[in-house]
Write a structure and sequence with these properties.
Length: about 300
């Protein structure tokens, strides 16, 4: 038996994040003593992967020897689950470290447990875990990623040790700033996918000989590299920066005719580009106002003449 055995862990929630963390901890030498999941099939599958004997769909079955509980469930359910665990009579709450994996919530949502003496905090991986990837593939995608964490100093010490064990990096986020931190995650992943899909769908109208990723991939890669090296404002390019109103007008009319579902996205991105360009002294106040007025006028035109049809 090792001199300093790793803590015993219970995983609540067997979705992609919870199962990935369970696999990482198991690989790092932690003993998973209970797996609790709403879906019995996925709970059994995860338990088999981490060699856990105790599987259930009930919080009442959390192993009493648990030292760490990780709650990885939809954000709206975390508070209720925390209350249920806090009312448990078979757990040593004062010896528990309870963490949730929500990006938007702080440790405050686990307050019922903190009142009972448990250490509470959050451990949110800055990574995406698509369902089409296997558990092993998701686990392998976490090497040296950051985790948004918060909690009291003693809790942070415990979390940082966990992250060292699973080859992760701590990113301490002030509780009040977690919504903004999570917004950055959403823009980095989900909303980025929305932009990529816009490229894909618009490219379908162009009859490309190659795939859209082959054609536009080098442009996207270079743009990202320019942004990393020189900053966003210095990497900006396109008709907004050049104040090429005629090209912008052609874009708007082409979208209205071929892909009207992307008009709001194009205009929102254009307005933000103009704001950045003005703040970076690439557009004058007058230029900025002219571009905004152009978008405003176009919006009035389409609102008064036709409804915006969204293609499915």
């Amino acid at each position: 038996m090792p001199a300093n055995p790793k803590p015993k862990v219970t995983i609540i929630g067997t979705g992609n994040v919870g199962s990935t963390l369970a696999a990482l901890l198991f690989e790092a030498g932690y003993k998973v003593v209970s797996v609790i999941g709403l879906d019995g099939k996925s709970a059994l599958s995860l338990a088999k992967f981490v060699k856990c004997q105790k599987v259930s769909t009930s919080l009442a079955d959390i192993a009493p020897e648990s030292e760490i509980i990780i709650i990885s469930i939809p954000d709206g359910s975390v508070a209720q689950v925390a209350k249920q665990i806090a009312s448990s009579t078979h757990l040593r709450l004062k010896k528990l470290l309870v963490l949730h994996t929500s990006g938007v919530h702080s440790a405050e949502i686990l307050k019922p447990l903190a009142k009972k003496g448990a250490l509470t905090g959050s451990i949110h991986p800055v990574q995406t875990f698509p369902s089409h990837r296997t558990l092993t593939q998701r686990k392998n995608s976490t090497k040296e990623i950051f985790y948004g964490i918060d909690g009291e100093p003693k809790t942070l010490q415990r979390i940082e040790q966990i992250l060292r064990d699973i080859n992760g990096k701590p990113l301490v986020i002030d509780a009040a700033l977690r919504p903004l931190y999570h917004l950055a995650c959403v823009f980095s992943s989900g909303y980025l996918m929305v932009l990529l899909n816009a490229i894909h769908e618009i490219a379908l109208h162009v009859n490309l000989k190659g795939s859209w990723t082959e054609v536009f991939g080098p442009l996207m890669t270079t743009s990202m590299q320019n942004t990393i090296r020189n900053g966003v404002k210095n990497a900006l390019t396109g008709p907004i920066i050049r104040k090429d109103l005629s090209t912008i007008s052609v874009h708007l009319e082409s979208l209205r005719e071929n892909a009207p579902q992307f008009l709001p996205l194009y205009m929102a991105a254009g307005i933000e580009t103009a704001r950045l360009a003005r703040s970076g002294d690439k557009l004058s106040d007058e230029d900025y106002s002219e571009i905004i007025d152009m978008f405003r006028s176009f919006m009035k035109t389409i609102s008064s003449t036709t409804s915006l049809k969204v293609k499915r």
